[in-house]
Amino acid sequence: METPARLPVYLDYAATTPVDPRVAERMAAHLTLDGTFGNPASRSHVYGWEAEEAVEAARVEVAELLNCDPREIVWTSGATEADNLAIQGVALAREEQGRHIVTSRIEHKAVVDTCAWLESRGWEVSWLDPGADGRVTPSQVAGVLREDTVLVSLMLVNNELGVVNDIAGIAEVLRDSPALFHVDAAQALAKMPIDLAGLGVDLMAFSGHKLYAPKGVGVLYVRNAPEVKLLPLIHGGGHERGRRSGTLPTHQLVGMGTACAIAREELTVESERLTVLRDRFLDGLSNLPGVHLNGHASARIPGIVNLAFEGVEGEALLMALAPDIALSSGSACNSATVEPSFVLRGIGLPDELAQASLRFSFGRFSAEHEVEYAVSRIIETVSRLRGGGA
């Protein structure tokens, strides 16, 4: 087994990805005086014109990856803002039509907390319980729809489990409903094909730092249709067709666009490579007893694996591996708590297994020998913590 040259081995790509060097190079050209540093909203000189051109080119690159109209792309600071804009924006714009929202108990906190905030202010929320596989079914959604339902919000890929929801099937259920369909796709972009032209989704949120672009940039897709209306959360200049005011950070948006352009070219090959790494990882641990894969076995992206280790406290395992392996027990947004993951509880996992679970996530710069090293260290450490090793 080859020891990686750099420790700890990074297996927390679901928390954040490093910026791809090709992305960083493009971004650097939009920061300094000798580059395209201008304000894209400055319409009276060449610096502004060049910056606007770069921003719109990036918008096209995002739209091409998603197969949508560039005018349907709204720049945000990340998926959290995009989720908030979609949920609050629709709720406030449509409150005279109804005040009922549908979501699930295992959504990202950006969705859960936003829906809970609306609930505390008079909206009614139907909180769906996913199956033990971590998925919400179209029939579950159909069962709670009402005439006053204005929004359904469900994620494409669960950030802790890596499980993929049947978004196309849910969209079909909503075809004849007045409710709009919002999807958090932060963990899906650049990890699986997304065809917005045929998916039947009204709003979809993305984050740059999950696909090798920088932190602090994201996108909200807003389908171009008269019924898809939302009120802005940020006021002050009418940017992004009045949906999100604020000076556009040219270098950030160029980074997002470049990352999307790279993903469009490399998605298939990268997905195949990550599948090989994932399978090697699971095969390597297959002889370690008492290890369980959390979530659906096949309806998942290859880069995220959530495992429960019987007889081991997850935090103890995490800390024991920490000198050599960087990973997490779940979402980085919840890392300050020692409570069992609400996602794992939400799929019915007993507390003892939920507390014994860790999330492993692989990415573009993960190497085969790093995966083999991680398998070796996990087996050694789990055996020791169980009392079976030195």
Attribute tags:
390 residues, alpha/beta, 7-stranded mixed β-sheet, 3-stranded antiparallel β-sheet, 12 helices, 13% strand
Walkthrough of the structure:
It contains twelve helices and twelve strands. The chain has 390 residues and is an alpha/beta fold. It has a seven-stranded mixed beta sheet, with helices on both faces. It has a three-stranded antiparallel beta sheet with strand order 9-10-12. The protein has a two-stranded parallel ribbon with strand order 1-11. Helix 4 links the parallel strand 3 and strand 4. Helix 3 (79-93) runs parallel beside helix 4 and helix 9 crosses helix 12. 48% of the residues are buried. The mean pLDDT is 94.
Topology:
Elements: E1 9-10, H1 21-28, H2 46-66, E2 73-76, H3 79-93, E3 100-104, H4 109-119, E4 124-128, H5 138-144, E5 149-153, H6 167-173, E6 180-184, H7 196-199, E7 203-207, E8 218-222, H8 250-285, E9 291-293, E10 304-309, H9 314-321, E11 325-326, H10 342-346, H11 351-354, E12 357-361, H12 368-385
Parallel strand pairs: 1-11, 3-4, 3-5, 5-6, 6-7
Antiparallel strand pairs: 2-8, 7-8, 9-10, 10-12
Helix pairs in contact: 1-8, 2-8, 3-4, 5-6, 8-12, 9-12
**Euclidean distance between termini CA atoms:** 20 Å
Shape: globular
Q: What is the CA-atom radius of gyration, in angstroms?
A: 22 Å
Helix segment tally: 12
